[in-house]
Write a structure and sequence with these properties.
Layout (H helix, E strand, L loop, with lengths): L1 H28 L1 H28 L8 H21 L6 H6 L4 H4 L5 H6 L5 H17 L7 H23 L2 H4 L3 H15 L8 H6 L6 H13 L3 H30 L9
Helix pairs in contact: 2-3, 2-7, 3-7, 3-8, 3-12, 8-10, 8-12, 8-13, 10-12, 12-13
């Protein structure tokens, strides 16, 4: 059984990698548009950070956080979100894919429907986010041979949580129809709260940022983990990523049953 499971996992990884390679090549094929979008996101992220440079030029810290912490926060969030856009761009239009009946294309394939749908597109702007994240990471001074593996884990978990929460909100389309705008606003809402230190919040707001809007797991907890490593925080982050991924898979497959029952609004020829 273990051998069969290992074979299935390897097959899924190989399949996902093949889809990603195809979509990345398609994105790079339009070089002019690619460099324009990627450069725009890179500059946009760096300009946004200027606010914190100005702030910390006048104040040494905010609740124990210094400029280096903020740069690390922006770096991890930018790389996590960038990975979700560059490598899992199909999730951005998942609600429309459901409503238009375009899941039919993926249902005819033997592989995972959600994996195909999520990995079906790649956006150039995601590479700009990734590039800005790497640049900010170097500026933060947190990058070292000892911290890089941990940072990679944090980015992978953030990527997983971004994609998983997007799948959950987009899957509402199975029950209530078009939720494309609502789902995108939900993602932007999460990004916005992710780039602020959660220790400035308290009470029910902080609870919200570690549950319905998992910004705390994407930004704050990873920064704390890198700067003040504790095994409990690492297990909490890994557990959160697994929990949100499980929730996303469960919600999507429950919705997929309704889709298969004939509630399609359109069929791709």
């Amino acid at each position: 059984m273990e051998r069969s499971l290992s074979k299935s996992v390897r097959g899924f990884v190989a399949f996902a990698r093949a889809i990603l390679v195809i979509n990345i090549k398609a994105t790079f094929a339009q070089r002019g548009a690619f460099w324009l979008q990627a450069s725009f996101m890179l500059v946009n992220n760096l300009i946004f950070c200027v606010t914190w440079f100005i702030f910390f030029s006048r104040f040494d810290e905010i609740n124990g956080w210094r400029l280096s912490h903020m740069l690390l926060l922006y770096a991890i969030v930018a790389m996590s979100f960038g990975a979700s856009v560059a490598l899992s761009g199909g999730v951005r239009d998942l609600a429309r894919t459901i409503v238009d009946g375009d899941l039919d294309t993926f249902l005819t394939q033997p592989k995972s429907v959600i994996a195909q749908a999520v990995c079906s597109r790649s956006f150039a702007m995601g590479w700009g986010d990734l590039a800005s994240g790497v640049f900010l990471l170097l500026m933060s001074g947190a990058a070292s041979w000892t911290t890089l593996p941990l940072i990679a884990v944090c980015v992978a978990c953030g990527w997983t949580i971004f994609v998983s929460t997007a799948i959950v909100t987009h899957s509402a389309a199975f029950w209530i129809g078009s939720v494309q705008d609502l789902a995108r606003h939900s993602t932007q809402f999460t990004v916005t709260f992710s780039v602020y230190p959660q220790n400035i919040y308290g009470g029910w707001v902080k609870l919200l940022l570690f549950t319905a809007v998992p910004a705390g797991f994407i930004g704050y907890l990873p920064v704390t983990l890198v700067t003040e490593f504790e095994w409990s925080n690492l297990f909490a982050l890994l557990g959160a990523a697994l929990a949100y991924a499980t929730l996303a898979s469960t919600v999507f497959h429950f919705g997929l049953r309704r889709y298969e029952s004939g509630n399609r609004l359109g069929v791709r020829a």
